[in-house]
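Curious: explain these tokens?
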Amino acid sequence: MFEQFLALIRKYEIIAIYRHVNSDFDALGSQYGLGQLIFDNFPEKKIVYMGASNPDLMSKMGIDFEQAVIENPSCTLGIALDTANLARLDGDNFEKLAATVKIDHHVVVESYAGLNIEFPEASSTSELIGEFYCACQKTLFLSKQAASWLYFGMVGDTNRFMYEATSTRTFEIAKVLLAAGIDKKAIYQAMYTRPKQELDILTFIYTHYQYRDGLAYYILSDEDLQHLGITRERGSDFVNTLANVAEFQVWMAVTENRAMHNWRVSLRSSGVPVQPIAVKYHGGGHCQASGATVSDLNELEALIQDLIEAIKEENKHASC
């Protein structure tokens, strides 16, 4: 499968790399890591990075954003990364491209490309790009920059290798990235060093979070986001502020996207499957880490009730 992917890269001179909306470290790390890997080995090819800007994460990762335009779709290879279904892809014209590839580690809900490389057991899509390099390393060179971006992605999606999806293979891929000369101390500092402003944000969340029947959550309206001086995307980043509390079986961040007239929901759990509920509410993801979208606070209440029922169901099975 990876050899077939490499053959497609060799064939096309223009390569458009996509990732999901509301990008995170893995979406960006796999996108720019793969793009750099291709550029380092095939410098004659034009790499186009699709998707909206994420100033906060891109600044941390040292990514220079440029608005992408696909000038000749009929001669372009499209690669969709870290995106379970086509509706969540950030960018246009994917279906119009000459050839398409999907590489993803989410639960398979839609195999929408010509070549689908889907491994739900992998910890991250960045790990899968590492797998691609390892499968083809006799003919490919892995630069420090490409390895660094992939490491950002792996660390982000495993929460510093603490999540259950972290496997022995995850560490083997990390070893390969370390061997490329990455500065892991600098990466961790970029990811986790925080400004004083974050203390004000955390204070707001701890003061305003709500708790109901095993579910903890905070809501940041557009006014709250403006008051705190952060973007909607940044507001979701604090979801794990509510993690590791014994009583909180599920926790979530709810942030208003006034421009899109909806509310973004980031879901996490210590065991309760949240992915089916995320799918019901226009989202998806992993069993215990997913994203959803609701149109208003009334729909949010329906989502909350579904989560509470899922918690009760999980507790019922645990007591058997």
